[in-house]
Give the backbone structure.
Amino acid sequence: MLERVELEEKHLNDYRSVAGHEAIAEIRELADTLQGARVVHINATAYGGGVAEMLQTLVPLMVDVGLEAEWQVIEGADEFFNVTKAAHNGLQGMDIEFTDEMKAIWKRYNKMNAEAFEGTYDFVVAHDPQPAGLLHYHGPADDEHWAWRCHIDTSHPNPAYWDFFAPYINQHEAAIFTMEQYVGPGVDFEHLAIVTPTIDPLSPKNAPIDLDEARQTVAGFGLDTDRPIITQVSRFDPWKDPLGVIDAYRIVKEEVPEVQLALVGSMASDDPEGWYYLDKTIRHAGEDFDIHVLHNFHGVGASEVGAFQAASDVVIQKSIREGFGLVVTEALWKGKPVIGGNAGGIPLQIIDGETGFLVDSVEECAEKTVYLLEHPREAVAMGNAAKEHVRDNFLTTRHLADYLRLFRAMRG
């Protein structure tokens, strides 16, 4: 039996003041014909990363509107997660080897987890490459609808990885991608849904926080809140380019000597490469004590991340490749203009010059950071626009409605 994730209750009506009456009424209407539908989401980890954070809210809200929804996590050892991390990178186009042994490991764990998967469901949603073979090895029950949710950009995949995964992915009745251009070549689904990720505006990370309280929290990690703070929140991953953020910070420091940098991450159980890249980031920071490299093992949890985003003068997300970038959404929701890499789903969120800036280089990142530090009034105006952009497009209530529409379409 797969591990079932225990979740706190959440209630849709609590979101009325944030999302508005019309959004709540639409969700209730969409859920009318799905009462009692059995839904299970399956992924690789119950914590760390945006997928887990979204499921922590989406699944309880599905229950609240009348679905029998749950969340299960597959089992895997380091050898499996090393392969799936390579698959994550390879499917996004990285030039890395995919050996027969790696393929055999992935198949073995998917077969094992498929055999452990019990029960019958109306809708099964498998998230990302880790459980993409469950359907193949398990087989659908009568009237069971399977969807594969892809949280990464497979538009230009490494062919060795895509040729292996595509047949497994293609067996699903439906697929969900963040952007239409992310759909890899040669796959075809009965139902294709384009659904951007969202944030929970009531979660500890995103709920309103008093600025003085946020600054006090940040100060507890060794930063001087009387001096400017730049923050990037992300996994320690080459696609997030923390080394490039450090390089940009060093350029900024030449013009704004008092500036500090916080690199805040989360070490997830399905990302063994993260520890290697964390070490690489620390070495790149060197002996500069104004660079603070922090993660959940330092006690930086969800509310602390929210405090860093709220207390920072500039938030950066300098990704080179990015599925969507929920950390961008989180910072925009806190009324912060964000400087983001012009990659993946970030341009859906950052309207260049209005809610932040899109950049293509270290030098451009540094230039825009200096601009925001030296023009606080413009930064505040951009931050206000940023928050409303998130309210209109990227709250969890909209995500829930998108899933309900897909389930109705799959049921026919």
Remarks:
- Residues 33 and 267 are 40 Å apart (CA to CA).
- The chain has two domains: 3-198+395-411, 211-393.
- The first strand starts at residue 3 and ends at 4.
